[in-house]
């Protein structure tokens, strides 16, 4: 019988949950006082690397997305250290943060589809 979840996917879920808690509660940098959502974590098969995809609910005018990604990637060693204390794993993966703009793209597509359906409804009537 085949497993429904692999070990790496379970670890990815735990990493996603714990990294979100660490970013929201334990990072003291005032530039992280925005809502950061972790949309997905992809862990390599050997559990040595983790790609963390994040999105922001609202961006401050004085801090850009690139700057926040740079800050998070610089803090990844500290985040990894905190993960060592929380998770009972032999190997804690190296973390690399990436910006996930799929929500913005999806929202834009949804707005375009709504405009198209409104145009077709008004043109038929």
From TrEMBL:
Protein's UniProt name: Ribosome-binding factor A
HAMAP family: RbfA
GO biological process: maturation of SSU-rRNA
Localization: Cytoplasm
NCBIfam families in alphabetical order: rbfA
Example of a GO MF term: ribosomal small subunit binding
Lineage: Bacteria, Pseudomonadati, Pseudomonadota, Gammaproteobacteria, Enterobacterales
Taxonomic superkingdom: Bacteria
Gene designation per UniProt: rbfA
InterPro entries on file: KH_dom-like_a/b, RbfA, RbfA_dom_sf, Ribosome-bd_factorA_CS
Keywords, comma-separated and alphabetical: Cytoplasm, Ribosome biogenesis
Native source organism of the sequence: Buchnera aphidicola
